[in-house]
Amino acid sequence: MESVIISGLQQGLIYGFMALGVLLTFELLGFPDLSVEGTFPLGAAVTARAVVEGVDPVLAVLMGAAAGGIAGAATGIMHTRLNINNILAGILTATAIYTVMLRTMGRPNTPLLAYDNVFGQVLGWFGLVESHLNTILFLTIIVVIARLLMGWFLSTDLGLAVRATGSNERMIRALGVSTDTMKLLALVISNFLVGLSGALACQAQGFADVGMGIGVLVAAIASVIIGETLFGKGRLNTVLTGVILGSIVYRAVLAVAMQVGLPAEDFKMITAVLVLLALTLPNMKFLGRARSKISGMVKGIKRSRTKSGYSAESIAGQSRGDR
Amino acid sequence: MIELDGVTKYFFPGTVNEVKALDNINFKAQDGDFITIIGSNGAGKSTFLKAISGVISVDSGSIKLEGLDMTGFPEHKRAQQIGRIDQDPMASTAGEMTIKENLAMAYMRGKKRRLSHAVNKKRTENFAEVLKDLGLGLESRLEVPVETLSGGQRQAMALLMATIARPKLLLLDEHTAALDPKAARLVMKITRRLVESHGLTTLMITHNMEQALKYGNRLIMMHRGKIILDIGAEEKKDLTVSDLIDKFTATSGSAFDDDRVLLA
Description:
The complex is a heterodimer. Chain A is mostly helical. Chain A has one domain (about 1-320): ABC transporter involved in vitamin B12 uptake, BtuC (Orthogonal Bundle). Helix content of chain A is about 75%, strand content about 0%. Chain A is globular and about 55 Å long. Chain B has one domain (about 1-250): P-loop containing nucleotide triphosphate hydrolases (Rossmann fold, 3-Layer(aba) Sandwich), CATH 3.40.50.300. Chain B is globular.
């Protein structure tokens, strides 16, 4: 049981970065960015090569994340400057990345167990040994930082323009904003986070593989949906925290499935069923009540401060209905 | 000052459906002018405003704002100086975002958007104040998503957003047409107040002839892509709706065929 919790937490935190990135493009920008299936393993491949070359693991991970961001820019430029359909632009990027990864690593996979990893390195700075618990502590801290940075960014003048590009593109253009630039910016940030996620994943599992990206997108979407289902999708700050928790729940479910002896080949089916359940269960009354209890606890204080005639719940309900 | 020189726009050029939507338009508005625009179906009124705002590009001619030729500018670049509102109350506000956030985005029109907090205390106070002037009680609902407002309230918000950064030009394309009569009256009242208090140069398309005569200091009438009548403040004062119809028939040689026009 303990190993289930540890594995669920660690994986959930690592993939939490990706969930944040996917939330930004798919949900907030309304841009179904398929390049993430490529930028996730790209982050791993670049990190692996850098580590093998003797680069400090911390720097190597940042290089992996940056590679993801650059690939995101490629998708953005294809879509905004060359007028390629958004889905196709993502597919083209993901396809091209495959070659980039093979060229970067020189082969389809790179084992890293013989090298120092980012967790041992950073924990060492603070005089801590690399244990499961300490790794989780470190991951928790950086995922919280990423969550706070994201929340901050989305409340700045620039962040508002990015969100409005997803909410009402015509309107924000009429307010003097280049929506092309906003899309480009969001794609870079999103794929930076996805690349970071891949880089950390390769560090945690001790190898990088060109096939690592298969199925990561649906996992991230599952995390977003689970997060929004369990914790509500009213306020942006709730959603941002919710998707990270959703990622942890999703990985925990997979870990439990593994624990009870379900074969690995069933996992994709479990994922699909999980997404389906998360999307359909909220329409059933008993779960709606349970959720309003959970989100009520979270939002209780804020709601009592809202002086409007609308309750936070009715607004959340309305925005849910609109999507 | 906005100036159009020989602006022409074709739709479906080179096909059997070719339409000359704007036919060699020469037009000039002085600073502070409030100009109402009327015309029959397909006269080119909306195309006229869209050519100015850059939503569509023109085939020939030039468009200058305060002496700056912006004919080749993309829409978003022109929008830094031009506020505009369409008919659709959903179009000019971001429904999922709060009143406060919508106003913050509008406040930044024409300014560089950076990483400073969009809704700080100072701005919030400022927004509450301008909302209070609207008289709709929205100042106590700053945190509410705009999609929970009524159509009239959203158009009032849109007006505030179009004017809060003091654009050099305001374009209104039948912005009360989708509202019920009561909301439409309210929005027109707010329009007049904002336009007059900021001294904004304004072009307003309307289907309501009464409205076209009541508001503004100049009236233009369009027909088949041309401006066929241009009436100044003095002449406009004593004009009635039936005078206007007569003038139209005399100048265009055809009946005023607009099923939506309100004659009363």
